[in-house]
Amino acid sequence: MIRTLRNTSVSCLALEQSYKNDLKRHSCETRCNSLIKGVYPASPSSWLFVAIGILATMYMQSDPSMGLITKIQQHLPLHMSLSAQGQTMVSALVFSTLLWLSLILALRFCLKLLLSYHQWMFEKHGRMSNTTKVWVPLVRLLSSRKPLLYSYQSSLPHLPVPAIQDTVSRYLESVRPLLTDPEFKRMSDLANEFESNLGNRLQRYLKLKALWATNYVSDWWEEYVYLRSRGPIMVNSNYYGMDFLYVTPTSVQAARAGNTITALLLYRRKVNREELKPSRVPGTVIPLCAAQCERMFNTTRTPGVETDVLQHWLDSEFVAVYHRGRYFRLWVYRAGRLLSPREIEDQIQRILDDASPPLPGEEKLGALTAGDRIPWAQMRKQYFSSGVNKRSLDIIERAAFFVTLDDEEQGMRGDDPEGNLDRYAKSLLHGKCYDRWFDKSFSVVIYKNGKSGLNAEHSWADAPTVAHLWEYTLATDAFQLGYTEDGHCKGDVEPSLPQPQRLVWNIPAEVQAQVSSSLAVAQALADDVDCHVFPFREFGKGRIKKCRVSPDAFIQISLQLAYYRDRGGFCLTYEASMTRLFREGRTETVRSCSNESCAFITALESGETEEECRRLFQLASERHQNLYRMAMTGAGIDRHLFCLYVVSKYLGVESPFLKEVLSEPWRLSTSQTPVQQMNLFDLKNHPDFISLGGGFGPVADDGYGVSYIIVGEDMVNFHVSSKYSCSQTVSNVSVSWSSETSHTVVGNHIYTRQYSQAF
């Protein structure tokens, strides 16, 4: 193996040199894009029109500057080198440039004001106010130019700090159905005392932060919720995404890896060149913040004793590959050229054919990223800060992303498709606890039978950003790159490509002992996770929307009904909502268990009339939609209270109210994975190419984690997780029927047919 490394060292140096040249080209593209997005919503060429207009006006013996051009001419240090006419020309061009920049700032300010208007979200369908009727064409006018990925960033509004009275009032309203009268009175007293005393002081500090911070929540959310967590990120934080449900484009493992890696790198190229279209609110021209795309590739989470750190590199021309206990560096560029899918397949096949055994301690080294963070930080600092270990670790951390060539077969297959689907989910969530590198921004898993999936680290971005990447990857793999008749990638192979580089380690006994300890912690966590994946085919958003009900509200109320029937009561329910209408926005909590939803469920379970239940259901659905819109527009509850708590910690003061609020368990944690690029999938001609979406682990030890994706008009895919150690939770409940209410119970999700048909 050492001989092979020496033989390929010259080739690797050549590749590194070409990489440096490619960085120069990338830097030039970056400067060009910076100019284009820096003047948006204007264009660089608009300067020429302004300059020509000013010069033409002056030629007609008129001074559009009202004397400013003359003043500029007096202060120009060009009196001796230019004629009077030349000085006038230069002064006019300087004035034109200043006028052009002023117009750009004015246009950007106007666009920011327009994007700060959110009342349109609260208007009922078909009942547009006059203000909104004027607002829509103005937004379209200022967004008419084709934007780059980050063009809107400087025009997005900042997240507002809600009034503390509003937040406290909304909080009390959200917990009312969960508390008895004495409990609610006690919580009300705590809230009122906080609002009238400490709360106002903390609010002043928070408003000061909001004045200088781009987003008053995001940096604290990233640090304190994710990076300062000292427990395992596997299962607790990382989440997964799945392959197509019914289709595997090829059963050749190396070929699937070749196309998948190529598609991911093509997406990275689009991100680097800012060629991706900015994401927008579905059905509108309203842009969403694209900041999370910046750290998608070449990013890793490095462990620390007190807090982890996200490290991002400009670019990387290789990926890190794990197979049967060995780590490899796979160059994916040759002299600045992206290798063809067939060439990457050939390189992957070389790794699969490599029969060399793992070095001592190498096979399960990845368990360090799956266990507790402090031991990993200590091992990294002591044993991976120099020598061959540092060089090998740097390759993994600087890689574009991590690839695992799994020797198992996964997917919905065989005689037990339901059970195999559950095992597929568990495999992507935690694998063997050592065959993924959980610190990487995302790790791609390619199984022996050609099935694929990914595991994503959570601190750098939220699921919709990763889902957008994965949608593009699946569609590009299946519909654009494609395969030959025998299942191999298309393209030619350059015979002189260097072998994949085997990474070298020197793992001492102390590190091996810690690897075993971290693996034991991770394995216990993985063994406790109960996953169930269920494609619901009875009906989908098509029938729900015909009932004039929001599909998301319908599903959320159904989940609460399921929990009520499962546990005999209501619980604090978390639904993730985005705040990407604002710059650097991430998520907000929708407290979807409301007074209205509880009233509907209570009425349904107590046997109220169909008419009354229908009325209450409509109220619950409208209430949920309003809560979701408020969360999206910066009027949520939980991020504001979280930031007030952080301020209290900085000031060293205790708040019984905030402490109790932030310690409340989310026993039902839910999230919808939206399909963002339906144009990439032709479900009419290729109905089997349906995405399974992804899922995550349970947030509370005695609760459920529920992720769902609404696919097309007639299908909803669910991912349910819980813990075996809790006797009160079961992710997979067999199908049963009740003639009284005619409902389907699967994985603790209940869809009441009589109401879906009645609305």
Automatic annotation (TrEMBL):
<keyword id="KW-0012">Acyltransferase</keyword>
<feature type="active site" description="Proton acceptor">
    <location>
        <position position="458"/>
    </location>
</feature>
<comment type="pathway">
    <text>Lipid metabolism; fatty acid beta-oxidation.</text>
</comment>
<keyword id="KW-0276">Fatty acid metabolism</keyword>
<dbReference type="GO" id="GO:0006631">
    <property type="term" value="P:fatty acid metabolic process"/>
</dbReference>
<feature type="domain" description="Choline/carnitine acyltransferase">
    <location>
        <begin position="159"/>
        <end position="729"/>
    </location>
</feature>
<dbReference type="GO" id="GO:0015909">
    <property type="term" value="P:long-chain fatty acid transport"/>
</dbReference>
<dbReference type="InterPro" id="IPR023213">
    <property type="entry name" value="CAT-like_dom_sf"/>
</dbReference>
<dbReference type="InterPro" id="IPR042231">
    <property type="entry name" value="Cho/carn_acyl_trans_2"/>
</dbReference>
<keyword id="KW-0496">Mitochondrion</keyword>
<dbReference type="InterPro" id="IPR039551">
    <property type="entry name" value="Cho/carn_acyl_trans"/>
</dbReference>
<keyword id="KW-0812">Transmembrane</keyword>
<dbReference type="Pfam" id="PF00755">
    <property type="entry name" value="Carn_acyltransf"/>
</dbReference>
<keyword id="KW-0808">Transferase</keyword>
<comment type="similarity">
    <text>Belongs to the carnitine/choline acetyltransferase family.</text>
</comment>
<keyword id="KW-1133">Transmembrane helix</keyword>
<dbReference type="InterPro" id="IPR000542">
    <property type="entry name" value="Carn_acyl_trans"/>
</dbReference>
<keyword id="KW-0472">Membrane</keyword>
<keyword id="KW-0443">Lipid metabolism</keyword>
<dbReference type="GO" id="GO:0004095">
    <property type="term" value="F:carnitine O-palmitoyltransferase activity"/>
</dbReference>
<dbReference type="GO" id="GO:0009437">
    <property type="term" value="P:carnitine metabolic process"/>
</dbReference>
<keyword id="KW-0813">Transport</keyword>
<feature type="transmembrane region" description="Helical">
    <location>
        <begin position="89"/>
        <end position="111"/>
    </location>
</feature>
<dbReference type="GO" id="GO:0005741">
    <property type="term" value="C:mitochondrial outer membrane"/>
</dbReference>
<protein>
    <recommendedName>
        <fullName>carnitine O-palmitoyltransferase</fullName>
        <ecNumber>2.3.1.21</ecNumber>
    </recommendedName>
</protein>
